[in-house]
Amino acid sequence: MNEATRYRLIYLAYFAALSGFGTFRNAFLEDIGMTGFRMGVIGATITVAATAAQPFWGLVTDWKGAQREVLVVAAAVTAVAVLTYPIAPLFDPTFVILLAGTLLYSVFYAPISPITDSLVLSTGVAYGRVRAYGSIAFGLGSLCYGVLIARLGSGVIFYVYSLGMAALVVAAWGVPSRDANSVGVVGRDAVELVTDRDFLLLLASASLVGFTLLSGNDFFSVYIREINGTDTTTGVAWFVLTVVEAAAFVYLFRLTSRYRYLLALGGFAYAAKYAVYYTVESPALVVASHLVTGVSFAAFYLAAVSLADTIAPDSLSSTAQTLVWSATFGVGAGVGQIAAGSLVDSAGVASMYGFLAAVAASGGAVALFISTEYGDSGETEGQTREALPSR
Q1: 197: part of which helix (H) or strand (E)?
Q2: Comparison of pLDDT for 345 and 373, the residue scoring more
């Protein structure tokens, strides 16, 4: 099996599994009687715990060259931990059991995506073309989950997640090992990385956009129900969005490979998407809007991981990705989910999306202050590191 095929399989397994957990987790929590605030606490636990764990995972992975081992262990542990969700309602302290399972899940979920991104970027394989398989899997998964939930109940998402992680373990088993680095090299390069102006601006932009990402996703199924849509409508909406997202991963570099503009486009596209949710009350219009706003995540994420890979020293490729992931889905998203949960309870889910639109737009604006040297309109994907000046 060649490298590109192996990473496509990893992304397929991971995002097919994650699509149910990410899209319908709050629908399950609503079904078992959790309030909006408690949904926010569960979401924040995922992101805060992952934020705390990710720098550790990144540094240890780069130091020991243990990318394969980390992927295998992380997938196996999360496959077990996620099963606490369907088990928790069988016991009296349901919320406490949910928090404990969420904490274990979060610590081991943290490294899977950023370390896979780092591995793909280090191979010279066209990242967007490989990562697009994750978007396709997420979209197809969301569509299928909507049908499965209608027939089997929302708890089915957790069992399918476990099966997906088992498939990821099989695919990751053949990932080649990488060279380890000395403690001195890792420490020196870490100081250089966290004091780099453009890397700090990237983290700031990622935190602001990240403030909106998970809360925007987690409450989407609740929002669709509020505007008289169904869980099947939620699945269709996600499918449309991720088909557009997959195409964007493949073709956005043809629009521009200037990373700061792609990062800004991602932030502004998210702002437009949330503004639609705030202003319309038709499930059909929401689904239709994804034909345009589906580019949001692809533009943002493609630029963020490419910038991190370009700015970071080779010895900290995994660490840089985990830091960006922490800023996006950790610091920003953790605060965002608490704020979003409170807004849902006090002002309603539609008003929450109006607030998220303003925050996402500010993240796009910050991206415009990043140096223009990153990315060249004449380069092609897969040549990024070689085409840019060394740091």
Answers
A1: helix 197-218
A2: 345
- 206 sits in which H/E element: helix 197-218
The values of phi and psi at residue 128, to 5°, are -60, -35
- Report how far residue 337's alpha carbon sits from residue 315's, in angstroms, rounded to the nearest whole number: 33
Residue 38 three-state SS: helix
Of 362, 270, 333, residue with least CA distance to 54 = 333
The sign of the CA dihedral 14, 18, 209, 196 is: negative
What is the Cα–Cα distance from 34 to 94, expressed in whole angstroms?
A: 10
Read off the tokens for 367.
Answer: 């991206």
Report the alpha-carbon distance of residue 169 to residue 146 in Å, rounded. Answer: 26
Going by pLDDT thresholds of 50, 70 and 90, the confidence category of residue 275 is: very high
Angle CA 143–231–341, to nearest 5: 110
d(CA 102, CA 202): 28
The torsion angles phi and psi of 154, rounded to 5 degrees, stand at -70, -20
Q: How much is the mean pLDDT over the chain?
A: 84
* DSSP state, residue 82: T
DSSP string computed for 115-149: HHHHHHHHHTS-HHHHHHHHHHHHHHHHHHHHHHH
Q: Phi and psi for 93 in degrees, rounded to 5?
A: -80, 65
Alpha-carbon torsion, ordered 206, 343, 353, 154, to 10 deg: 90
Rounded CA gap, 362 and 358, in Å?
Answer: 6
Alpha-helical regions (H) of 229-294 = 231-255, 259-279, 283-293
Residue 164 pLDDT exceeds 60: yes
Q: What is the pTM of this model?
A: 0.77
